[in-house]
Design a protein that fits this description.
This protein is of the alpha+beta class and 87 residues long. The chain is 61% helix and 16% strand. It has 4 helices and 3 strands, in the order αβααββα. Strand 2 and strand 3 form a beta hairpin.
């Protein structure tokens, strides 16, 4: 669903027709993505059109980069420590 929205904005109905899930399931998924700041919506007549929020995606990318930087730094320290000698 997120991949489809990254290609072009869609309504709930458009997404539901393209996926093997119900409209309510699409709506729930979009609510989660919206609450996470990854998609935004705008009213177009009776429909809401959803699209990926580039700013939200940038924030997620920055958070993932921080996570991996910390994780890789910790891994590097663990690998570079000399092995403990057995007694």
């Amino acid at each position: 669903m997120f991949e489809r929205l990254s290609e072009h904005p869609c309504s709930v109905g458009e997404l539901a027709r393209a996926l093997p899930v119900s409209r309510p399931a699409v709506s729930q998924h979009l609510k989660v993505l919206k609450d996470a700041g990854l998609v935004v919506d705008m009213r177009a007549g009776k429909q809401r059109i959803y699209r990926v929020d580039p700013e939200g995606l940038a924030r997620l990318r920055a958070e993932l980069d921080r996570f991996w930087s910390k994780t890789l730094a910790a891994y590097k320290l663990a690998v570079e420590q000399p092995p403990e000698k057995s007694q």
